[in-house]
């Protein structure tokens, strides 16, 4: 009897260890111990979540008990949140109040993060600052060589992001200088470009949405940011649903799960139904097998496959532009989107069919020839994008061998491009079946 009970005990122990295989519990690390104590002092009740390192997602939170639908994942008291209210009640407050023209809520938060990071040991927010990432992988932080490997629409947005942060830095220099009385060191060295880039990325990737009433000391941009220590360790999954909101009665920010989660598994939240390009742009990561992912077709690619001598070409382009059919043309897991096919149908209209363009935009079938040509061109565009993606993947693998310092960033673009390739190959298969059926 005893022997068999021992065997069951070993089995149970093995199972317990197996549960931890996916995530390595990190709650014993000093930075997390200090963070938990700091949160407890501000009224945070210890939940069932533990910081852990996961194989696929890196740092995240695991649950120590099975979660059921509508269970409360986390409830973070208002005192733990970092908002513009926090900034105004700090020594920066009086400088923000008197600065004209008023700074934006975003710049106020960036300034606070940079100042607190500079304060080091004396910062009241040190336990939180210590667990924030030291570097980010948003496009604004990527080297030019890496950005050039992004798909064209994302490349454009990445360049816009870089411009935004640069303009923010230039336009805030005078305000930063006004803070000189607060610092022994020159504000120019404290509030430099890389400090602002880090603070901007921290806010852009980690804030929760929380509406605050408009204050006169801020510019008119919406004040909707709150940094949420510990809660911001929760990673994104496109396959889960949660309900997140500030509870006015309890004065705390709460997240409820709408999916089950087994004991010792990673707990995920959903940042929204974003495709991978948006996830990379806004948060600096890519989700594998993302059901919302799509591959964008640029207007230039669209026009490569149409005879430049088509007399109605310019008129067709005007119609597409006026009816917003030149943007968001995509291939997805279920093939070419309706928008893409519709744009291509209109471009494929024969001279004798051109007067039917309104019916085309409504989704009507104009002729067998038009349908056939549309599928034919869609397949050509799909194959062109497959070849282009394969070519970029080849470039990435060569660069990974030669540029050790860019390996992490290159791996990110590679993950995005591999997902694109899977989508395009699936679309090519669907198009092939459609052509056969037609």
UniProtKB/TrEMBL annotation:
It holds the Pfam family Rubis-subs-bind. GO terms for biological process: inflammatory response; methylation. GO terms for cellular component: cytosol; nucleus. Its main location: cytoplasm. The keyword Transferase applies. Gene3D superfamilies: Rubisco LSMT, substrate-binding domain, set domain protein methyltransferase, domain 1. Keywords: Cytoplasm, Inflammatory response, Methyltransferase, Nucleus, S-adenosyl-L-methionine, Transferase. The keyword Cytoplasm applies. PROSITE patterns: SET. Forms a ternary complex with TBK1 and ZNF268; the interaction with TBK1 is ZNF268-dependent and leads to TBK1 monomethylation. This is SET domain-containing protein 4. It comes from Cariama cristata (Red-legged seriema).
């Amino acid at each position: 009897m005893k022997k068999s009970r021992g065997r069951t005990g070993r089995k149970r122990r093995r199972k317990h260890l197996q549960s931890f295989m996916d995530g390595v519990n990190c709650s014993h690390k000093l930075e997390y111990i200090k963070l938990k104590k700091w949160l407890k002092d501000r009224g945070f009740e210890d939940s069932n979540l533990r910081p852990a390192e996961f194989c696929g997602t890196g740092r995240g939170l695991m649950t120590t008990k099975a979660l059921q639908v509508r269970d409360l994942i986390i409830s973070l008291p208002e005192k733990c949140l970092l908002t513009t209210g926090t900034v105004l009640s700090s020594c920066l407050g009086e400088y923000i109040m008197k600065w004209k023209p008023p700074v934006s809520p975003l710049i106020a938060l960036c300034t606070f993060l940079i100042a607190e990071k500079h304060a080091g040991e004396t910062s009241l927010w040190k336990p939180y600052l210590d667990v924030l990432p030291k570097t980010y992988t948003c496009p604004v932080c990527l080297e030019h060589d890496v950005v050039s490997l992004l798909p064209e629409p994302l490349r454009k947005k990445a360049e816009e992001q870089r411009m935004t942060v640069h303009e923010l830095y230039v336009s805030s220099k005078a305000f930063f200088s006004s803070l000189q009385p607060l610092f022994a060191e020159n504000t120019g060295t404290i509030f430099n470009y890389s400090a602002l880039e880090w603070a901007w990325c921290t806010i852009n990737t980690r804030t929760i949405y929380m509406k605050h009433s408009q204050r006169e000391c801020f510019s008119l941009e919406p004040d909707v940011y709150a940094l949420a220590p510990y809660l911001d360790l929760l990673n994104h999954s496109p396959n889960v649903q949660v309900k997140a909101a500030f509870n006015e009665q309890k004065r705390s920010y709460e997240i409820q799960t709408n999916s089950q989660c087994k004991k010792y598994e990673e707990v995920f939240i959903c940042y929204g139904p974003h495709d991978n390009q948006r996830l990379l742009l806004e948060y600096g990561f890519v989700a594998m097998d993302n059901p919302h992912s799509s591959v964008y077709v640029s207007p230039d690619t669209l026009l490569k496959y149409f005879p430049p001598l088509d007399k109605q070409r310019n008129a067709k382009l005007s119609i597409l532009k006026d009816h917003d059919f030149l943007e968001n043309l995509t291939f997805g897991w279920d093939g070419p989107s309706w928008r893409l096919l519709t744009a291509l149908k209109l471009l494929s209209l024969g001279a004798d069919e051109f007067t039917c363009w309104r019916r085309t935009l409504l989704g009507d079938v104009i002729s067998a020839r038009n349908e056939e040509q549309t599928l034919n061109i869609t397949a050509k565009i799909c194959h062109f994008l497959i070849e282009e993606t394969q070519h970029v993947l080849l470039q990435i693998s060569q660069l990974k061998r030669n540029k050790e310092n860019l390996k992490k960033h290159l791996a990110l673009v590679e993950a995005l491009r591999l997902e694109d390739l899977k989508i395009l190959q699936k679309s090519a298969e669907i198009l092939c079946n459609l052509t056969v059926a037609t």
